[in-house]
Design goal:
Length: 239
């Protein structure tokens, strides 16, 4: 989503619970420094490693206070927090500032910060959904078995139950719905929804532009990113 990054950045935030909405302007000098490594092929995100094992999303939002943080995804392995996380920002310029916090401290731990790519971020989402559903599977199998749709344009009052009802023919559970909210806890009008099969997620695309509440809902097939090999280009399907 990189022309999509603008749209992703404008609304996307905490599918899974927090984000920030201020507009931090990237300086031209910083962008020049970043140009060799941070291009539009990258999601505006970083990967953190070495986090305390009791680290919370709030700790990471506090660590990046003043940044336009849209999403924090804590990475678990075999039901335990791995000490890693992905942080998604509102624009690519903020990645450079985030990298400057490499080796800064969260509760006596030196935190390593690395560039990441969109495939890694979405694979982590797929693995987390798989974990929530009780399946201990690899990223590769999660990519195949658990297709995801992104919803945009939701009423700000929409709940998980509302979205389950919107997809009432698809036998979804509420924990398959991940609402995106800001750091202040305000809904952004976006959500991720995990379907039990590719067949069902494709069928669910027929509800694109249908109404929930008084809003037309846009649907985007995130699973198409997850199913690509690591060597293929990771391009958006929402233009």
């Amino acid at each position: 989503m990189c022309g999509a990054i603008g749209e992703f950045g404008r609304s996307l935030r905490r599918r899974l619970e927090s984000g920030k909405q201020q507009d931090i302007r990237a300086k031209k000098q910083c962008l020049r420094k970043l140009r060799p490594t941070t291009t539009v092929s990258h999601l505006p995100a970083v990967r953190l490693r070495g986090l305390p094992f009791d680290c919370s999303e709030k700790d990471i939002y506090d660590f990046f206070l003043g940044f336009d943080v849209l999403d924090v995804l804590l990475v678990s392995r075999r039901w335990r927090f791995s000490g890693e996380a992905f942080v998604l920002f509102g624009n690519i310029g903020q990645v450079g500032y985030a990298l400057q916090k490499h080796r800064h401290v969260i509760r006596h731990r030196y935190i390593e910060i690395f560039l990441t790519e969109r495939k890694d971020y979405y694979q982590a989402i797929a693995a987390e959904v798989s974990r929530i559903q009780g399946d201990d599977v690899t990223f590769a199998s999660a990519r195949t078995v658990h297709p995801v749709l992104r919803l945009r344009g939701l009423p700000f009052s929409a709940s998980r139950r509302d979205i389950v009802n919107f997809f009432k023919d698809f036998n979804l559970r509420e924990n398959a719905v991940h609402l995106v909210v800001s750091a202040e806890g305000r809904p952004t009008g976006e959500a991720f929804v995990e379907f039990p099969s590719i067949t069902l997620s494709k069928a669910a695309m027929n509800k694109d532009k249908m109404i929930l509440g008084d809003r037309y809902i846009e649907l985007f097939p995130v699973y198409s990113y997850l199913n690509q090999t690591s060597s293929s280009a990771f391009s958006s399907t929402d233009n």
